[in-house]
Design a protein that fits this description.
globular, eight-stranded parallel sheet, alpha/beta, 327 residues, TIM Barrel, 44% helix
């Protein structure tokens, strides 16, 4: 399967793992890359330059294939503007293959000089966006590609609330750089659909949680397999930082606080990153907002990353072949 994404990075499949706090560390990043896709090392997992640089080098010990680094530039209690600058500088110094930027664009958040720094180092820069206007800005700023993230995605979809089915072709027709579809992707049929809409690849995150290679408590994996597509909801809209999370007890509590007009101080104890980290580790599926997408409805088992990607590509090929016979 050859697309602009496989050619850009020299990978076998146009399937990229998205950034996930506390989960996208060297073992999972390497497993996805070794399986023929593009793994992700999420920068926010590391608070010091030494730890971040060591994580990049540890990933390289586990795989000789390219991987992305995920950098989220959103308001945070723990991660500062200084962290964002450090992450970008280290990525340039270590010459990582590519960066997934979520939130504010690099040129506006830390300065256009960082885009120049990354380009000189040969680092490909992708921006995850939920609108055509943001995609157009990223192209003008010098990004190398776009993640078109529909409202179905887990994490923090843009509050324009545009679906993947509409967003992907709209961005494809509006920019000349490669577009990767995000949101609702979990199997070969959704990969085939994204390619049919004009995307050059897909990015998924929730699907990689339910794999044998993801270092997370088995209760979490089993819960994702058990749940269906209607069992997520949007939270933190009142903070203008909406996120899609699995419906559970803490999410119900968050929604109640928002309905009553509670602000950041009331919400913070329930949405703090450390709370999520503990839940991933101890397997308490009710204790924290689990930021997953509607694609959980398509997740039915817990394979290895290699099994998952090979199966997805086979199913995508079969799907596209079946559709071609209709004409």
């Amino acid at each position: 399967m050859k697309t602009a994404i496989t050619e850009m990075f020299g990978i076998k499949y146009p399937i990229i793992c998205g950034a996930m706090m506390w989960l996208c560390k060297p073992p999972l990043a390497a497993a996805v890359s070794n399986a023929g896709g593009m793994g992700n090392l999420t920068a926010g997992n590391y608070e010091t330059e030494e730890d971040f640089r060591n994580a990049i080098r540890e990933t390289r010990k586990l795989t000789d294939r390219p991987f992305m680094v995920g950098i989220t530039i959103l308001p945070s209690v723990r991660i500062t503007a200084g962290h964002h600058q450090m992450y970008l500088r280290v990525c340039a110094e270590e010459k990582v293959a590519g960066i997934e930027v979520s939130g504010a664009p690099v040129d506006k958040a830390v300065g256009p000089e960082y885009i120049d720094l990354l380009k000189k180092a040969g680092v490909k820069l992708f921006h995850k966006v939920g609108s055509v206007r943001h995609a157009v800005h990223a192209e003008k700023a010098g990004y190398d590609g776009i993640y078109a993230a529909g409202i179905e995605e887990g994490g923090h979809p843009l509050d324009d609330d545009v679906t993947t089915m509409v967003l992907t072709p709209r961005i494809v027709e509006s920019v000349k750089i490669p577009v990767v579809t995000v949101g609702g992707i979990a199997n070969g049929k959704s990969l085939a659909a994204a390619l049919s809409l004009g995307a050059q690849g897909v990015m998924m995150a929730s699907r990689f949680i339910a794999t044998k290679d993801c270092v997370v408590h088995n209760n979490i994996k089993e819960e994702i397999v058990k749940r269906q597509e209607h069992e997520t909801t949007l939270i933190c809209k009142t903070l203008h930082l909406q996120g899609r999370a699995l419906k559970n007890q803490v999410v119900r509590n968050i929604c109640e606080i928002e309905e009553k007009g509670g602000g950041f101080e009331a919400l913070y104890p329930l949405i703090a990153g450390e709370r999520m980290k503990e839940a991933w580790e101890d397997g308490d599926v009710e204790a924290a907002p689990m930021m997953v997408g509607q694609s959980i409805g398509l997740i039915q088992d817990v394979p290895t990353c290699k099994e998952l990607l090979e199966r997805m590509v086979k199913e995508a090929e079969e799907t596209l072949a079946r559709v071609s016979k209709l004409f």
